[in-house]
Specification:
The protein is 26% helix and 25% strand. The chain is of the alpha+beta class. A hairpin with a 2-residue loop joins strand 12 and strand 13. The two termini are 23 Å apart. InterPro entries: CRISPR-assoc_prot_Csy3.
């Protein structure tokens, strides 16, 4: 058995256990009859003449002539956009999730003693918790339609239809707050199916998700935005994601929403406006420019994982949940 930090594997990787597809976007109407007749949403290219809105230098701000000259410059842009048709009032987003077992087995590990020690710790966690807490939070994020991101805001109604084999259930997304993971009886069945796969009772579970958000006739919808590496050679300032012409959301963005379950970081209770964050080794939230799990505070993944994998007890069950959630996320965690 591995007993000290020197026994930590230098080559270590885990395959992700929540495998999410891209999300395909369709336009339809809210009534049940039209939900089955959803049509793929297409991207539209627009050429627009905007105004200068960036922060200007004090010399320009304080000189009316220079300010007027700057404002007169056209801000020409070519952008992608996507919207419902004038006969449609509802966005349909469809994607699938495969939940896999085997989190106790690294996909790569060059230290047999470490692999044995970690496997014992992971099996102990599974026997003690059955993955119930993590699975409930994943199921909660499905039921609450957190994965809609910006498309969730301002919707009049949102239904989430989930199918696992012959089992089906519909959730009213607005029943569930995005600020916490309050217990709801109707979510437990879905959570149980996720837990069955993560704990190894089932080899996998295949989940089909369809979300319907009533946004209003002709309203704009928001696919994922592509990252433009060579902006100098790109004629468009905003490029949206599509698959074979169908507007879509990245699997990574959907997966990020599903693993936004970390309420165990130290500042959760005191940080206003942050709420749950995505499971990350350092608690990174890029749009805030902050890492909520600083290694100096010994609450980052690597500090906790090294103890956990070597058989040392962690301070709380919450720390164990966090470590296992990172491993469900998957990644390369070696020393290189």
């Amino acid at each position: 058995m591995a007993k000290k930090a020197a026994d930590i594997a230098s080559v270590l990787a885990f395959e992700k256990k929540l495998v999410v597809s891209d999300g395909y976007m369709y336009g339809t109407c809210w009534d049940d009859e039209h939900k089955v007749k959803a049509e793929p949403l297409k991207l539209v290219e627009k050429s627009v003449r905007g105004t200068i809105s960036n922060r200007l230098k004090p010399a320009v701000q304080n000189d009316p002539a220079k300010l007027n000259a700057e404002v007169e410059k056209p801000n020409l842009q070519q952008v992608d956009s996507c919207a419902l048709g004038m006969e449609q009032d509802t966005l349909k987003l469809a994607f699938t999730i495969k939940v896999l077992s085997g989190v106790e087995k690294p996909s790569a590990c060059n230290n047999a003693a470490f692999a044995q020690s970690y496997a014992a710790a992971a099996k102990g966690y599974i026997e003690k918790t059955g993955f119930k807490e993590l699975s409930y939070r994943y199921a909660y994020n499905i039921a609450s339609a957190r994965f809609l991101w910006r498309n969730r805001l301002g919707a009049e109604k949102i239904d989430v239809c989930v199918k696992v084999g012959s089992w089906e259930q519909k959730f009213d997304a607005y029943t569930y707050s995005l600020r916490d993971f309050t217990e709801h009886e109707e979510i437990k069945a879905l959570a149980g199916k996720i837990a069955a796969a993560l704990s190894g009772e089932e080899p996998y579970q295949f989940i089909e998700v369809e979300a319907y958000a009533k946004l209003g006739v002709g309203q704009e919808v928001y696919p994922s935005e592509e990252l433009v590496f060579d902006k100098g050679n790109s004629r468009k300032s905003k490029i949206l994601y599509h698959v074979d012409g169908v507007a879509a959301m990245h699997s990574q963005k959907l997966g990020n929403a599903l693993r936004t379950i970390d309420t165990w970081y130290p500042d959760f209770a005191s940080e206003e406006g942050t709420g749950p964050i995505a499971i990350e080794p350092y608690g990174a939230v890029t749009n805030l420019g902050k890492a909520f799990r600083n290694p100096k505070d010994k609450v980052d993944f690597y500090t906790l994982f090294d103890k956990f994998a070597l058989g040392e007890p962690l301070a709380s069950a919450e720390e164990e949940h966090y470590v296992m959630a990172v491993l469900v996320r998957g990644g390369v965690f070696g020393k290189g």
